[in-house]
Automatic annotation (TrEMBL):
Residue ranges annotated for the Polysaccharide export protein N-terminal domain, each copy included: 102-173
Keywords: Signal
Residue ranges of every copy of the Soluble ligand binding domain listed in the record: 181-231
Name of the protein described by the UniProt record: Uncharacterized protein
Signal recorded as keyword: yes
Presence of keyword Aminoacyl-tRNA synthetase: no
GO terms for MF: polysaccharide transmembrane transporter activity
A Pfam family hit: SLBB
Superkingdom, natural source: Bacteria
Transmembrane domains' residue ranges: none
Length: 413
C-alpha cells in the first residue's frame, strides 16, 4: 500500500517546517536583541534622548513648527490674583447727588422680606441686626448695611447661586428703621429728633413748626454719603401752599440735617399770613401786654396768624379808661438790634382798616395807655445800646415788669 509512504512524507515535511521556523526565529532574535527588550517601559533619560533625536531630524527636514499660545480668557481669574471674599463690600463708586437723595439704603433696624421663587423654604423675613447683618438660609450671616434694595437682592441671589441654578430672588422693604436728624434755623425748637416716619414735614412739626421769620422757599437738607462727601437739596414748601399742590416731601435718612433759612425782610412777595395759618408754622405765639387799664404786665398766647384786633379782644380793654387812638405795638428788629415802636388806631382797626390791623409776631409787645406809651418810648430812647438779640429785648421788658409800680400810677392813662 502507498499510504505508509504518504504518511512518512507528511511527517518529514512537518519536521522540516518546524525546524525552519525555529531557525528563522533564532536568527531574528540574534540579530535584533533590543526588540525583545523594548517591551519594558523606557526611562526618562531615554525619552529625552529620543525626543532630541526627533527634534534634530525635524530640523534637518524643514525646521520645527512654531507654537503660538492663545491669550488667556479674560473672564477667567488669574491664578496669582487673590479671590475676594464672598460678601466683601466693593469700593463705593462716585454717587450722583440727585439720584442719591431718592435712594434708600439699608441700615440696622430695617426689616426686609426675601422671596425665592419655587423655594418657599428659603423665603423669609428678617430685620438687620445692630451690625447690619441678616441670617439667610444656606448662607448664614450676610451684611447688607449701606446697600440699596436692588444691591441687597443681587448679593443674596449671588450667594444662593452656589446651591440653586439661576435663583429668582426678590427683596422688599417691610419695615423702616427710626432715624435721628438735626433741625436748625427758623424753627421753634431746634435740636436733635428721632423721626418715624422720616419726612421733612414731620421733622418741622416735631420741632414746633417754623417761626414767622422762616422762608419756606429755602428749606435745605444736607446728607453725608458713604464716601464721606456731603450733598444738599433745597426744597420749596411755600409755592405748594400758595398753589394748593402736594408738598415735595423727602424721605430722610439717619444723620440728615434740615436747615430752615431766614426770610429776607425786604421780600414783599412772601405771604406770611398764609404760612402762619398752615400746619408747618408754629401753632401759637406769645406776646407781652403792658396795660394800665388791665392792671400791669402780662403774657398772652394767641394762635399763629392772629392780628392786632385779636389781641385787643383777648385783653378786654375798657373803653372808658383807654385811649383807643394811640396803642403802641413794639417789635424787635433783628437787623438793627433795636425796638421799633408803631402807634396804631384801635378804632380804625376794629372798623376794618387793614393798615391799622397788622399781623402779630412772636414776642411782640402791646402797650395800652397814652402816658404809659410815652414812658416806655422814653425808656427805650435812653437805652442807647442796641439789643444783641431777642433775649435782650425780652429782658428789657422783664425789668419793666419788676419795676411795674413805677410805671403804673394813678395818672397813667
Amino acid at each position: 500500500m502507498s499510504w505508509p509512504r504518504t504518511f512518512i512524507g507528511l511527517g518529514l515535511a512537518s519536521l522540516y517546517t518546524s525546524t525552519a521556523t525555529l531557525s528563522y526565529t533564532f536568527i531574528l532574535w540574534s540579530i535584533q536583541p533590543q526588540k525583545a527588550i523594548a517591551q519594558t517601559p523606557p526611562t526618562d533619560t531615554e525619552l529625552q534622548r529620543l525626543l532630541e533625536e526627533r527634534r534634530q531630524r525635524l530640523q534637518r527636514e524643514g525646521g520645527l513648527p512654531t507654537l503660538e499660545l492663545e491669550p488667556a480668557d479674560p473672564l477667567l481669574p488669574s491664578p496669582q490674583a487673590p479671590i475676594p471674599p464672598l460678601f466683601q463690600t466693593p469700593p463705593t463708586p462716585a454717587l450722583d447727588p440727585v439720584i442719591e437723595f431718592d435712594t434708600y439704603r439699608l441700615g440696622p433696624g430695617d426689616a426686609i422680606g426675601v422671596s425665592v421663587l419655587r423655594f418657599p423654604d428659603l423665603s423669609f423675613q428678617a430685620a438687620l441686626d445692630l451690625e447690619g447683618n441678616i441670617t439667610v438660609p444656606l448662607l448664614g450671616r450676610v451684611p447688607l448695611t449701606g446697600l440699596t434694595l436692588e444691591e441687597a437682592q443681587e448679593r443674596i441671589r449671588f450667594g444662593l447661586n452656589r446651591f440653586i441654578i439661576d435663583p429668582v430672588v426678590t427683596v422688599s422693604l417691610i419695615g423702616v428703621r427710626p432715624v435721628q436728624v438735626t433741625i436748625a434755623g427758623e424753627v421753634f425748637r431746634p435740636g436733635f429728633y428721632p423721626l418715624n416716619p422720616p419726612f421733612v414735614s414731620t421733622a418741622i412739626l416735631i420741632a414746633g413748626g417754623t417761626t414767622q421769620q422762616a422762608d419756606l422757599r429755602d428749606v435745605r437738607v444736607r446728607r453725608i454719603l458713604p464716601d464721606g462727601s456731603v450733598i444738599e437739596r433745597t426744597l420749596d414748601l411755600f409755592t405748594p401752599l400758595r398753589n394748593a399742590d402736594t408738598l415735595p416731601d423727602l424721605r430722610l435718612q439717619n444723620g440728615d440735617a434740615i436747615v430752615v433759612r431766614t426770610l429776607d425782610t425786604d421780600d414783599l412777595t412772601y405771604d406770611r399770613t398764609l404760612v402762619a395759618s398752615s400746619t408747618l408754622a408754629q401753632q401759637q405765639i406769645r406776646i407781652q401786654v403792658l396795660s394800665y387799664a388791665g392792671g400791669g404786665v402780662g403774657a398772652l398766647a394767641l394762635p399763629n396768624g392772629s392780628r392786632f384786633t385779636d389781641a385787643l379782644a383777648a385783653i378786654r380793654i375798657n373803653p372808658d379808661n383807654t385811649n383807643f387812638r394811640q396803642i403802641a405795638l413794639i417789635r424787635f428788629d433783628p437787623e438793627r438790634g433795636q425796638a421799633v415802636t408803631r402807634l396804631l388806631n384801635a378804632r380804625d382797626a376794629i372798623l376794618g382798616n387793614p393798615a391799622e390791623d397788622p399781623m402779630l409776631l412772636e414776642n411782640d409787645v402791646i402797650v395800652v395807655g397814652r402816658n404809659l406809651v410815652a414812658r416806655i418810648t422814653y425808656a427805650l430812647g435812653t437805652f442807647t445800646q442796641p439789643f444783641r438779640d431777642i433775649l435782650g429785648f425780652l429782658l428789657f421788658f422783664r425789668q419793666l415788669r419788676q419795676g411795674a409800680e413805677n410805671l403804673f400810677g394813678p395818672d397813667q392813662r
